[in-house]
Design a protein that fits this description.
single chain; alpha/beta; six-stranded mixed sheet; four-stranded antiparallel sheet; 9 helices; 12 strands
Length: 275
């Protein structure tokens, strides 16, 4: 494997022992850096998320929010620092003081515990809603089909789509497709669920149903990181709100602090533009 992150630049984290599962927050990101074509998009992001906690990432376009989210499940390689979920280093393994990138199979195993809901649904158009939800449990986790189908139907009911289980994506509205995508992520029983602007591609009248499902998940104790411009959702559902700009965390804290009493002028200017 390629030797990565063994000599991090100044300010990046250095190798050390990984946290013991259960003794640390579910997600631990330390000094995460990422560049594209010489442009540094993430400039040392450090965040933690506890089990059952909801974190909302706010900020202008290009601030690094979605890139950070994609780094959490190793859809993007990081250039410095480290990310751990449930005590396990994501995308990399440490051996004799050096860090190496995992192979595809190892990364795929890690991703099973980290669900992700994208802006653009990404449903299989030739599969029904129920088939979309059950494809991974049957094909990846090798669950017996009858049990997977029963669980899939239960999850579609949970997101308010029980009567549309046999519908194809083209027969569903954007909001319904996004709720199928949420059910699909839940079908793998993730320990962490990532949302990358899940309502940004929806017509305004369809946003509410998706946010209602997400509020229910939050109330049920699902650990979630949500990139969003929906300030109302962040105020009502988040335990932590993080404002990012220019690849750094500008301000973070509970919604009552960041949204109602922001201390940084950049945070105040952003909130004034979206509220």
């Amino acid at each position: 494997m390629t030797d990565l992150l063994s000599n991090p630049r100044p300010g990046a984290s250095t190798p050390g022992s990984e946290p013991v599962p259960g003794s640390e927050p579910l997600l631990v990101a330390r000094r995460v850096r990422k560049s594209f074509g010489g442009v540094e998009v993430l400039k040392g992001i450090s965040l933690t998320v506890d089990v059952g906690e909801v974190m909302c990432l706010l900020g202008p376009s290009g601030s690094g929010k979605s890139t950070f989210l994609r780094c959490i499940n190793h859809l993007e390689r990081i250039d410095g620092g480290r990310i751990s979920v449930d005590g396990e280093l994501i995308g990399y393994a440490e051996r004799r003081g050096k860090i190496y990138e995992m192979n595809r199979r190892e990364v795929a195993r890690q991703r099973r515990g980290i669900g992700m809901v994208f802006q653009r649904f990404n449903l299989f158009p030739h599969m029904t809603a129920l088939e979309n939800v059950t494809a991974a449990p049957i094909g990846v986790r090798k669950l017996a089909k009858p049990g997977a189908l029963a669980r899939g139907q239960e999850l579609l009911d949970r997101v308010g789509l029980a009567d549309l289980a046999q519908s194809y994506p083209a027969q569903l509205s954007g909001g319904q497709q996004q709720r199928v995508a949420i059910a699909r992520s839940l079908a793998m029983d993730p320990k962490l669920l990532l949302f990358d602007e899940p309502t940004s591609a929806l017509d305004p009248e369809l946003v509410g149903d998706v946010l209602d499902v997400m509020r229910t998940l939050a109330a049920d104790g699902m650990t979630m990181i949500v990139v969003t411009h929906e300030v109302g959702f962040a105020r009502g559902a988040a335990d932590q709100v993080v404002f990012m700009d220019g690849g750094v965390v500008v301000e973070s804290g509970p919604p009552s602090s960041v949204l109602d009493n922001p201390q940084n002028p950049r945070t105040r200017a952003f909130l004034d533009s979206v509220m």
